[in-house]
Amino acid sequence: MGITKNQIFTDKQNDLAQFFKVLGHPARVAILQYISNQNACICNDLVEEIGLAQATISQHLKELKSIGLLHGEVEGKSMCYCINIERWTAIQNQLNSFFNTTKSNCC
Amino acid sequence: MGITKNQIFTDKQNDLAQFFKVLGHPARVAILQYISNQNACICNDLVEEIGLAQATISQHLKELKSIGLLHGEVEGKSMCYCINIERWTAIQNQLNSFFNTTKSNCC
DNA sequence: TTTATATATTGCAATATTACGATAATAAAC
DNA sequence: GTTTATTATCGTAATATTGCAATATATAAA
User: Fold this and answer.
1) d(CA B58, CA B27)
2) Whole-angstrom Cα distance, residue A72 to residue A15?
3) pLDDT (0 to 100) of residue A19
4) B10-96, what's its fold?
5) Domain HTH arsR-type spans what residues (chains A, B) (predicted)?
């Protein structure tokens, strides 16, 4: 099958899983870390920095955008991709809430 | 291709992405939440509770075990799957460290 | 307008994931 | 020992993801 049965889970569970899923690729982790360490954030730098093809980086950026973690602005002929800090913090809070309400209670 | 190029990333980036990835499925989120709310934690309950086939649940449990989040003990003819709280907290800390060291610095 | 540069999109091949039925393995109950 | 109940594993089909070359798009520079 290969298809995740989203309909049998709650919206919260699906959202949470989606956040985790988008962060669940080393290229996307690396992209976020790289952008975070720059003063400028130009997509083309990422291609050299990360070592994946331009098309692949563009695809990963799209996924990060899909959950609102990045926003991009046209900056001349390049793009300025930046971390959306409000969204970033909101997602961190949701993940922590999940971690904090899930506890061991046996063995 | 379909194969993630792990070799171009650091071990830390790969580990972090792996944690996110394992948590990136609603069934696994639901399994953790369910186990957390029970006093006992029997796999067979999960099949009814989650609504996926027994083989599928078993597969998801295996993935959660792979990053050490669950440990199972034989309990008669069933299994007692529990959350490994030390590991749980350790992973939460690693994820938070990632979130806290990644900051917005432009736009 | 043409050319050069930067990013996005499309199409495709390879691999991974999800899900499940069938079957094996294990242990309790009889 | 046989049966029953529970979980794991195998095999397989369907779908998703990853990655890249080629191409399209958009803007700046010449």
Assistant:
1) 11
2) 23
3) 98
4) Arc Repressor Mutant, subunit A (1.10.10)
5) 8-103
The reply to whether B79 Cβ lies less than 7 angstroms from strand D is yes
**Residue B11 CA from chain centroid, whole number:** 19
pLDDT in tens, B6-32: 999 999 999 999 999 999 999 999 999
Chain segment A60-86, per-residue pLDDT in tens: 999 999 999 998 888 888 899 999 999
What would the two tokens of residue B7 be? 């070799």
Residue whose C-alpha is closest to residue A88's, from A74, A105, A71: A71
Domain ranges of chain A: 11-95
Distance from residue B77's CA to nucleotide D3's C1', rounded to whole Å = 14
Q: Is A32 exposed, middle or buried (0-12, 13-18, 19+ CB in 10 A)?
A: buried
Architecture of domain A11-95: Orthogonal Bundle (1.10)
Q: With 90 as the cut, is the pLDDT of residue B102 above it?
A: no
| pLDDT reported for residue B75 | 83
Residues making up chain B, counted from first to last: 107
Contact B106 A33 (CB under 8 A): no
For residue B3, the distance in angstroms to the closest alpha carbon of chain A comes to: 11
For residue A29, list chain B residues with Cβ-Cβ distance below 8 A. Answer: 9, 13, 16-17, 20, 98
Measured in Å, how far apart are chain B's first and last C-alpha atoms?
Answer: 35
